[in-house]
Amino acid sequence: MKLVCTLSLAALAALASAGCFSGGQKWDGDKQAVLDKIDAVCADGTLNREYPAGSWDDDQPITYDWDVTTTRRVHLGVWLNNIWGNTVLSTSDCKSGLRKEVDGCEHGGQSEYTHWKYRADINAK
Q1: pTM of the model
Q2: What residue spans define the domains of the chain?
Q3: What SS3 state is found at 6?
Q4: Which end of the chain is more exposed for a tag (fewer CB within 10 A), N or C?
Q5: Contact 123/24 with Cβ under 8 angstroms?
Q6: Alpha-carbon distance 80 to 56, whole Å?
Q7: What is the pLDDT of residues 69-115, one digit of tens each?
Q8: CATH hierarchy code of domain 20-124
């Protein structure tokens, strides 16, 4: 019984970290500034906009890069996977998707939710 519980907890922990980057810079003291910037670019038309129908082709994301400090840069990216036509990313979906990559991943991450793929990454400049 104890072995089953341990294995189940290990499996749940692996699922929770799916999509997280395993190394690189951490959000550290810049986390709240990044979350605030996500809120802004997901509300001002930068990322919450119409996306053309397409695929997960890494050459087609809508991105936003921001120097959070003089030595660190944040990269945000959103892709649409929708073969039926252009789709508008809502402000709430934009915020929710990108915030999961910051709140749930200490080094940033990349995940897919419904027809959307989100990436939030922080790196040294």
Answers
A1: 0.79
A2: 20-124
A3: helix
A4: N
A5: yes
A6: 7
A7: 999 999 999 988 766 777 888 999 999 999 999 999 999 999 998 88
A8: 3.30.430
